[in-house]
Amino acid sequence: MTQPEASAVAVVSPHFCSPYPVDIAIVRKLLTITDGSFVVTDVNGNIILKVKGDHLLDTAGYPIITLRQKLISAHERWQVFRGKSKKSTDLIFSAKRSSMLQFKTKLDVFLAHNTTEKVPDFKVKGSWSEKSCVIYAGDNSTIVAQMRKKSTVKSELLGKDHFMVTVYPGIDYAFIVALIVILDGINTASIPTVPN
């Protein structure tokens, strides 16, 4: 398995790309499943992003992106838009299950300009029961991020899921967070389904 070159892959914004590997923690509060509440922190515990309902927010509470699940979709397709928009012109990317029947989770991710969707721009493969996944660039073995569950006595007592994510150099970590929230949404239905 290879790592990507240092060139930036800014799907959401270059602001979220780093020339170094970025380790982040994504914490889902299990007691607030109805609003899909997550907090994203750096390794020092500083909040860098939040997910509230169907929005990914910056530290000031400004919506960076909106995540939407399509109501009628055989492969559980999700669409991600800039800011609070739901307009097709503001579509950044979409993600869907690779096939309808899956034992392990596999998602195909298509950037907005990839309208033919013959080859995915990114792939997500993992086991949700083990709370682990790997995100690949394109349809090959280049890893751009990896997630694993971190279990602590404190997180179990507080009713939280705690995911540790390593985002490789030059990869947009807001994009990676959005993919993990979608993965969680597909597997736990934590973000409400909305009409198209």
Automatic annotation (TrEMBL):
Gene3D superfamilies: LURP1-related (2.40.160.200). Signal peptide: none annotated. InterPro entries: LOR (IPR007612), LOR_sf (IPR038595), Tubby-like_C (IPR025659). It holds the Pfam family LOR. Belongs to the LOR family. This is Protein LURP-one-related 15-like. It comes from Prunus avium (Cherry). The gene is LOC110767320.
